[in-house]
Write a structure and sequence with these properties.
By secondary structure, the chain is α+β, with helices and mostly antiparallel strands. The chain is 29% helix and 22% strand. It is built from ten helices and 14 strands. Strand 2 and strand 3 form a beta hairpin. Helix 3 runs antiparallel to helix 4 and helix 9 packs across helix 10. It is globular and about 55 Å long. The N terminus is likely disordered.
């Protein structure tokens, strides 16, 4: 086995990813067993996994599975960070981001800053299947959804109103403003920019419950692959903020000839590194899923050592893995897996590094 990997690595030395694989191909045996079909998703969202798996078992496509799985989380408001009624922005409004990708055709549909529509992943698929575009945003995305037959509803709940009210009473702390006045660390807005911009380290407001995006990868018996995400974003975000979830290659990526990946965490930082795309390309070059995930996290960690984030990866044979950055509050990352080896979704974990 070792000789085989060394031979593969020597062939790849001329490849642009070879330098990345040096520290990772020492992990010769993948964590996940090879088994198709496969559903893997971030966090312990068991019902979402079960919905996706049931869809595959009943003859649905991998796109159907990803859509059904993410939609289940949207309706159940998983951890308050997916779907309606969570993560109100500075104006108290809940908005949604979602993406779905076809690993066979490389088609993508995505929405960001979506208002009034609960089924964000469904709208994302409609963008993919009923337009030549990839990403629609804001009010125009909501109008598109309504025209496509999606029901307009209020995304606000008593819980989100209470979160917003308490935030206002606490002088709008925390928030994500900088180099503005009045001082954002003491006061609410409206804010105006300061004449002098100070380059200071970005404050870390996030916690492990503020970024629980669902990211999902599905692979069927015939090797068809899809990936998707859904989230209501960052609590107290600046209105209009878009994170990594609806950005192809950042929130998720799928290529049926190489693998799929999905990320979760501090999207403002993670989207700068396209971790899902990187992980898939590493798997294409020969890295096993666990190694690919770890290298994608290491790339971000090199610049932001205390970022909050994790990633799941699956290759074309059904092997899977995950990795996470170790920070206070996140020493292990939990994710769900369904394959033919078990009759129900299995909770998996990985130690962060």
């Amino acid at each position: 086995m070792k000789r085989k990997y060394r031979q593969q690595f020597s062939v790849c030395q001329g490849n642009m990813f070879a330098s990345l694989l040096i520290p990772t191909l020492t992990l010769l045996f993948p964590v996940g067993l090879s088994s198709l079909p496969l559903v893997i998703n971030t966090w312990p969202f068991k019902n979402a996994t079960a919905a996706a798996w049931s869809t595959l078992q009943s003859g649905g496509s991998v796109l159907d599975a990803v859509e059904k799985g993410c939609a289940r989380c949207e309706m159940e408001q998983c951890h308050g960070s997916v779907g309606y009624g969570g993560s109100p922005d500075e104006s108290g409004e809940t908005t949604l981001d979602a993406m779905i990708m076809n690993g066979d055709t490389m088609e993508v549909g995505a929405v960001a800053d979506l208002r009034r529509i609960k089924n964000a992943i469904g709208v994302a698929r409609a963008v993919m299947e009923h337009t030549d575009h990839t990403l629609l945003v804001g009010e125009s995305a909501s109008v598109f959804a309504e025209n496509m037959g999606f029901i307009a509803e209020d995304l606000t709940t008593n819980k989100s109103v209470n979160i917003f009210s308490q935030w206002l009473k606490g002088n709008c702390q925390p928030n994500y403003r900088k180099n503005v006045f009045p001082d954002p660390s003491e006061s609410c807005g409206p804010y105006k920019q300061r004449a002098t911009v100070r380059q200071n380290k970005r404050p870390q407001h996030a916690n492990t419950r503020s970024h629980d995006t669902i990211g999902m990868v599905a692979l069927d018996r015939n090797g068809h692959m899809a990936a998707g995400t859904s989230t209501n974003g960052l609590t107290h975000k600046v209105p209009g903020r878009v994170g990594d979830s609806p950005i192809v290659g950042a929130g998720a990526y799928a290529d049926s000839s190489a693998g799929g990946a999905a990320a979760t965490g501090d999207g403002d930082l993670m989207m700068r590194f396209l971790p899902s795309y990187l992980a898939v390309e590493l798997m294409r070059a020969g890295a096993d899923p666990s190694a690919a995930c770890k290298t994608a996290i290491s790339r971000i960690k090199r610049h932001y050592s205390d970022f909050f984030g994790a990633i799941i990866c699956a290759n074309t044979t059904g092997h899977y893995g995950a990795a996470c950055n170790k920070v206070p509050g996140l020493s292990q990352f939990h994710y769900m897996v369904s394959n033919s080896e078990s009759s129900s979704p299995i909770l998996k974990s990985v130690d962060c590094f």
